[in-house]
Amino acid sequence: VVQLPLKNPLRARRLLRDSDLDICIDTDSWPRISALLCSLSGAYTIGFETENQRRHALFDQTVRHDDSIHELENYRNLVRALGIQASSPPQNLAGSWSPKGNLVAFHLWPGGTKSHLREWPFSSWKQLAEELSSTSNFCLTGGTEDRHRNDEFLATLNPSLRARFENIAGVPFSQTVQTLRSCRLLVSVNTGIMHVAAAIGVPTIGLHGPTNPVRWGPIGNHSVSILSTTPGAGFLNLGFEYEGQPETMAGLSVPTVVDAAKRLLALSAPC
Questions:
Q1: Each residue of 216-256: pLDDT tens digit?
Q2: Is the pLDDT of residue 55 over 70?
Q3: How many helices (DSSP H) and strands (DSSP E) are in the chain?
Q4: Rounded distance between C-alpha atoms, residue 5 and residue 58, angstroms
Q5: Buried (b) or exposed (e) across 67-84, using 16+ Cβ within 10 A?
Q6: 93 pLDDT more than 80
Q7: Maximum distance among all alpha carbons in the chain?
Q8: Distances from the Cα of 262 to the Cα of 203, 221, 266, angstroms
Q9: Residue 153: partners with Cβ closer than 8 Å, 6 or more residues away
């Protein structure tokens, strides 16, 4: 891994040239800076032609960025431009799913632009936990910056339900992955940990409001995407198209999520 200093294009160009690349593939779909750096690499360049982004002229070969397919397929198409028949599933990061006990993971916090518009209300998470609490204990995942926010959620629960939760936000990523491997279920807003868990094989429910599950849903053998019933939900394509769009996360039905959770929990039910 070579980290390029985006604020110093001349040094970034030098690092790219020093790598003596034959081919440089830009996997970004809209930022111009990555297209520029790719074009300065001295290599044969491949990148996306994305509608209205005006960046494709910098590449030797372009691949149409298709807003009707999952982003994974768009990435595969970049590799197919080299004649490689890409079809592999997402990389398994830590071995296969191996459930132990009765642990269910919740991930409450998305990242990125206007991430608060992809958060499910505390009241909905609380109802979900209450519905599953007779057979489950829970952990809350997240980054270091999410630990206090998880605590704010826990403070809304009654003491008996709160006692069934552990806040593991902020532990090393490898430890989070190992915990997920042993979970019977992850319920998550649309964010990175959702994709990681699905790739491991963990039964995963992805909660979608602005995000379109056709474009950004979890991919795995035991993954379910639930889209808000709010009219206009699923409008995000590249990730920044919020202007003029409705708030959608409250349109995710708790009973619908509970039903999906119970179906997936049955996959690891004791014989």
A1: 999 988 999 999 999 999 999 988 899 999 999 999 999 99
A2: yes
A3: 10, 9
A4: 20
A5: eeebbbebbbbbbeeeee
A6: no
A7: 62
A8: 11, 16, 6
A9: 108, 122, 125, 126, 140
d(CA 30, CA 251): 29
Model pLDDT for residues 172-206, shown as the tens digit of each residue: 999 999 999 999 999 999 999 999 999 999 999 99
Contact indicator for 143, 60 with CB cutoff of 8 Å: no
Residue 128: both structure tokens together: 């979900």
Phi, psi of 161, deg, nearest 5: -75, -40
Q: Report the percent of the chain where pLDDT is more than 90.
A: 86
- Cross-sheet strand order for the sheet of 223-227: 165-167, 137-140, 103-107, 185-189, 204-208, 223-227
For the whole model, what pTM was predicted? 0.90
Higher pLDDT, 94 or 12: 12
Cα separation, 210 vs 50, in Å, equals: 20
CA 17 from chain centre, in angstroms, equals 32
